[in-house]
Amino acid sequence: MHIVTAKEMYEIDRITMEEYGLDGRILMENAGRAIAKQLEGLLSLNQRITILVGSGNNGGDGFVIGRTMMNAGYSVRILQLVEDNRIRGDAQYHKQLFLSFGGTLLHWNESFDLKELEEETDVWVDAMLGIGAKGALRSPFSEVCTFVNRSERLTVSVDIPSGIPADEESGYTEEAIHADITYIIEAPKLSTFLERYASYYGRWEVVRIGIPNSAWSFIKRAIWSDQSVQQTLPTRSRFSHKGSHGRGFVIGGSQSMPGSVALTSSAALRAGAGLLTIGTVPEAIPSIAAQLTEATFHAMKGQNGWIQAQELDLSPYDSVVIGMGMGRAEETASITRQVVKSAHCPLLIDADGLYHIQHHKSSLRERSHPTVLTPHPGEMAMLSNQTISSVLDHPISISKTFAMEYGVYLVLKGPFTIITTPDGEQWVNLTGNAGLAKGGSGDALAGVLLTMMMQHETIQHALSNGCYLHGKSADYMVEHQHSDRDLLATDVIHGLIQIFRTLSS
Ligand SMILES: NC(=O)C1=CN([C@@H]2O[C@H](COP(=O)(O)OP(=O)(O)OC[C@H]3O[C@@H](n4cnc5c(N)ncnc54)[C@H](O)[C@@H]3O)[C@@H](O)[C@H]2O)[C@@H](O)CC1
Ligand SMILES: Nc1ncnc2c1ncn2[C@@H]1O[C@H](COP(=O)(O)OP(=O)(O)O)[C@@H](O)[C@H]1O
Ligand SMILES: [K+]
């Protein structure tokens, strides 16, 4: 399923209409009908529906929904918020049909009594503004949205909750509709995945309206779905041996922070790594070894409890991860730079490793093997010289610019993790929950990703599947054994058992 900007959606509509010849009125009919079908499954016949329509095509969808629901036996009325002369084109065509079918149309005016309307309403359908919304809500949209948000009736939005943008834009107001459910037309818009706007959507579903599959070919952004996982997760051959599943090297840890390396390594093993070696300072080895009997160790030279620069033969490894628990001391800065230069295999840089490369980003471009960076928004802000709030408001565009500029795979972590390739293609992972918002979750993710990188031919598949599995495990554990408060990274690692069992059954 693709993810689009408003501009891209308009272009897809244009291609469908002009190049394929599908009439805009038919598209609008399909949109309204697809949403009406969902509403019929959701509502009982005695629930009275009030549809709020604005001047654009979103309002046009509203007129189709009105006619279709009325025909299905529901009590429907439409409140038009704009003057008659503002309803034009396809929307005007469908407004006329609604009227000729005997629909009830109310017009907004200064003295309109919303309270009275509310008394005759069980469900608000918000068809006020769609992807054409610009800036803060104007009157009367602002008043009507405020009223609907205070009303305790079920609120269903068409395509987008009115008042929020489709794209990574700010300047919108609190008054935007807080929907219970949003029926998104054809493809989620960027704002569906932005911290600032995601909650306005409520629960969301996508409805198809007949856009041809080939019209999407220029969109390089999509959701990583259950189906994507089924199509790309490698199976294990009956005749495989430990060498077939990758030999990984985890570099990190320090005298005072041995725990995160243990989490990464444990996650890598649980995710199916064939062989795993942990490179850390000698002082950290006993505590890690006590938890991980399956790993082997490479005692690295340390100074003051930190890993220092040293000769390192990375040739036996299929993938390397560096950074967790390593600390930010100058000693570890040198080893990070050295590994970036000498790892002739896929390399994942996380946590303190990201801190160390912030002033050496150009060295990433010189690597001849894939490089993966896994920042959370704070680390992304540091790497891209932005503020954290700017990263949160523009995660999709900032990721893309960075990944393309430095030729890296970027995994920007968060409630919706964004995976970007060096070519700028992007995938959004939807699994995971707030139980993961806790120290250690990222370490576990790095381990899962390390293993996936050794087992997939395509790094993007590896990263997307790794993020999916990590989040899916957290979802499973919160649903069956834990809560989103008590969940620990070790539980997430443990939950992988169930996820793999389900995927392979
Ligand atoms: N174009 C197509 O082929 C299709 C479009 N569809 C629907 O059409 C929608 C997009 O239609 P439009 O491009 O007409 O855009 P909208 O329906 O979002 O309406 C935009 C109009 O609303 C007004 N407006 C914008 N910002 C405002 C603000 N802050 N306060 C008050 N009024 C404001 C302006 O007059 C603007 O022209 C989609 O979201 C979707 O619901 C569907 O019917 C499917 C087919
Ligand atoms: N609210 C949330 N919903 C879903 N996933 C989340 C949420 N918060 C964090 N995560 C996930 O948890 C992990 C946290 O990583 P990170 O911030 O690096 O943690 P740490 O390094 O402290 O272990 C990432 O995979 C991220 O996507
Ligand atoms: K809407």
UniProtKB/TrEMBL annotation:
Residues binding (6S)-NADPHX, per UniProt: 57-61, 130-136, 159, 325, 376, 443
Co-factor requirement: Mg(2+); K(+)
Signal peptide region: none
GO terms under biological process: metabolite repair; nicotinamide nucleotide metabolic process
Gene3D superfamilies, sorted: 3.40.1190.20, YjeF N-terminal domain
EC numbers, comma separated: 4.2.1.136, 5.1.99.6
UniProt KW Glycoprotein keyword: no
Binding site for AMP: K413, G414, P415, F416, T417, G442
Record key words, sorted: ATP-binding, Isomerase, Lyase, Metal-binding, Multifunctional enzyme, NAD, NADP, Nucleotide-binding, Potassium
Listed InterPro entries: CARKD, Nnr, Ribokinase-like, YjeF_N_dom, YjeF_N_dom_sf
Binding site for K(+): N58, D126, S162
Domain YjeF N-terminal, residue spans: 9-217
Residue ranges annotated for the YjeF C-terminal domain, each copy included: 225-503
Cofactor binding annotation: Binds 1 potassium ion per subunit.
PANTHER family referenced in this protein's UniProt entry, alphabetically: ATP-DEPENDENT (S)-NAD(P)H-HYDRATE DEHYDRATASE, ATP-DEPENDENT (S)-NAD(P)H-HYDRATE DEHYDRATASE FAMILY MEMBER
Subunit and partners: Homotetramer.
Family (UniProt): Belongs to the NnrD/CARKD family. In the C-terminal section; belongs to the NnrD/CARKD family.
Protein task: Catalyzes the epimerization of the S- and R-forms of NAD(P)HX, a damaged form of NAD(P)H that is a result of enzymatic or heat-dependent hydration. This is a prerequisite for the S-specific NAD(P)H-hydrate dehydratase to allow the repair of both epimers of NAD(P)HX.
Entry protein name: Bifunctional NAD(P)H-hydrate repair enzyme
Lineage of origin: Bacteria, Bacillati, Bacillota, Bacilli, Bacillales
